[in-house]
């Protein structure tokens, strides 16, 4: 696959769903990818990227930000409270606000600095014990708590269980967002982004389909 093929598939999925062209943002997930692959995408003009780890992103993106203007980098992976300050400096958005404790830490820092990235709250739609995120039954209360903390909550995010039809999880996430008046839906990865767009994804997070398999 290439960037332009994925862009074409995003557009086709938007059209098939009766959605406006360009209503889905394509996040190129660059975690663990060799720098030359990322630079190839930067050279093609793509400006929106996703990373999983604060430390890894801190080592890569400052240099690229000097060389390429208009970059946006979003954090998609788990965030520890002691990394919150660094994450808020590094990223334009955080998709993995997954528990009250991290929301409270972000809120304290936002009060102190007067700035905060866009936030997505992670919902554990599959209710998997090993997975991050609040359970669907606690989602409305978590949204309300984050709003009460004055946080810029833009939407919800989920990572469906690997062995289940993702469309059901995307539909559930969309329902929770809708009843909470949230516009943003961060859902869909390399294997299922078209199904996510059909369910209203505003942000799809595509890694290996753009860059190739991640080296292990
Ligand atoms: C790695 C990752 C992706 C991208 O996965 P691909 O299957 O390579 O597209 C998307 N979202 C999150 C949260 C990830 O960790």
Automatic annotation (TrEMBL):
One of its GO terms (molecular function) is pyridoxal phosphate binding. Transmembrane segments: none annotated. The modification N6-(pyridoxal phosphate)lysine is found at residue 31. It comes from the Bacteria. InterPro entries: Ala_racemase_N, PLP-binding_barrel, PyrdxlP_homeostasis. Gene3D superfamilies: Alanine racemase (3.20.20.10). SUPFAM superfamilies: PLP-binding barrel. The keyword Ion transport does not apply. Keywords: Pyridoxal phosphate. Residues 4-215 form the Alanine racemase N-terminal domain. CDD domains: PLPDE_III_YBL036c_like. Its cofactor is pyridoxal 5'-phosphate. Pyridoxal 5'-phosphate (PLP)-binding protein, which is involved in PLP homeostasis. Belongs to the pyridoxal phosphate-binding protein YggS/PROSC family. This is Pyridoxal phosphate homeostasis protein. It comes from Roseisalinus antarcticus.
